[in-house]
Write the structure tokens for this entry.
Amino acid sequence: MSAAAGVGPSGPVAVLGAGGIMGLPIARNLARAGFEVRAWNRSPAKAKQLAADGVILADTPAEAADGAGVVLTMLADADAVLAAADGEHGALSAPDMPRVWVQMSTIGEAGTDSCADLARRRGIGFVDAPVLGTRQPADEGKLVVLASGPAELREPLRPLFDAVGQRTLWVGEAGAGSRLKLVTNTWVLLVVEGAAEAIALAEGLGLDPALLFEAVRGGTLDLPYLQIKGKAMTERNFEPSFSLTMAAKDAGLVADAAARNGLELPVVDAVRQRLEQGAREHGGKDFSATYLTSAPAR
Ligand SMILES: NC(=O)c1ccc[n+]([C@@H]2O[C@H](COP(=O)([O-])OP(=O)(O)OC[C@H]3O[C@@H](n4cnc5c(N)ncnc54)[C@H](OP(=O)(O)O)[C@@H]3O)[C@@H](O)[C@H]2O)c1
């Protein structure tokens, strides 16, 4: 019996984007928690390994979603999400389409509004649920889910969110989760760009950047994230957990939200330009590779 049986959006879960850094472990963890999972990915080969966990691989979003209780989107950006939901062979064209859409990709304020409008027009419940955490927390089912949407879906969705995350924060009406995600991403992006420039400066001044980590060690300025991403920068090991392309996209989403709400955030604008510049050359690398844009020539 499915772990979700007997409650609200019961039945299979269709995971769209099931071959991505985030989508793959989310689909796997749902299957391992007892959900019946159908998976679709644009490049099918990337999701193939899910079959070992009993996940059924579908050729189109509509095929994955047909008869499912929930459709879960974890795709790169708003265009990809809207196409998978409403494009040709989209999930919402399934003959027996899901009653609930859980949207977990990072798509910003305007993208989330478009999805919520679409869900309203098609008469399905919409839960905006972006996540905090990267490859390892996703693998371990330890994401933090920033959920927002109809109160009556909270309990029914608890088993689903518990399967992928260590904590779910319900923050209000649909859209609030994505707004909070923009806030947390602003913090992350500024920290990493700040680390990149501090390390580049140390090297440019002829200092060993390890002295930066040593100087702040154990004090209030020490930060696990500085240690992790700083190590990646000094070792030039940019195996992607969160790609520079996605980080540049997310900085753009923050800048768009600031503009929509009449805010001036010049540091975000500068970081966005820096990330976009890095992404043109190193887009598939981890976003700590933004350091390469500032690094002094060796
Ligand atoms: N990685 C992280 O640390 C992290 C953390 C929190 C949130 N997020 C967010 O989670 C989402 C997924 O990120 P990710 O890191 O998993 O990225 P990823 O590994 O690059 O995966 C992106 C997914 O989107 C699909 N996709 C991209 N463009 C598409 C299109 N035009 N049509 C259909 N499918 C398309 C990809 O399909 P293909 O396999 O065919 O390319 C893949 O399934 C993003 O919104 C990201 O900002 C990521």
